[in-house]
Amino acid sequence: MKEFEYEITQHTSNEFQTLAFVCSNSGECRQEQITGSELEILTEKLNSRGKQGWELIQISFREEIVVAFWKRERSS
After folding, report:
1. Quick one: average pLDDT of 51-58?
2. Of 39, 41, 58, nearest to 67 (Cα)?
3. Is the per-residue pLDDT at 67 higher than 90?
4. What value does the mean pLDDT take over residues 49-58?
5. From start to end of the chain, where are the E strands?
6. Structural domain for 45, as ranges
7. pTM of the model
8. Backbone angles phi and psi of 45, in degrees to 5
């Protein structure tokens, strides 16, 4: 049977130059715009983790922070 391990990483908005968040009164946030350079930074982060065997299973945009949820198969 396959076994997996999980990891949660946080990335502050300081890692992105103009990543904009829009938050409702209930606290739900979403990215409003991501410029080309921010897409490159995000793509680089995703590809770097992917080369280590991690699969992104969810990404959440919160006020001033991006939270990423990862999983990968454990090696026996």
Report:
1. 94
2. 58
3. no
4. 94
5. 4-12, 20-23, 29-33, 55-62, 65-73
6. 4-73
7. 0.67
8. -65, -45
Closest CA to 54 of 6, 9, 11: 6
CA distance 4 to 75: 9
Residues 26-47 have pLDDT tens digits of 766 666 656 667 778 778 888 9
CATH of the domain at 59: 3.30.1410
CA angle, residues 64, 66, 72, in degrees to nearest 5: 165
Please tell me the total count of domains within the chain. Answer: 1
Task: Tell the residue number behind the tokens 């770097």, with chain if given.
Answer: 48
Between 26 and 8, the more confident residue is 8
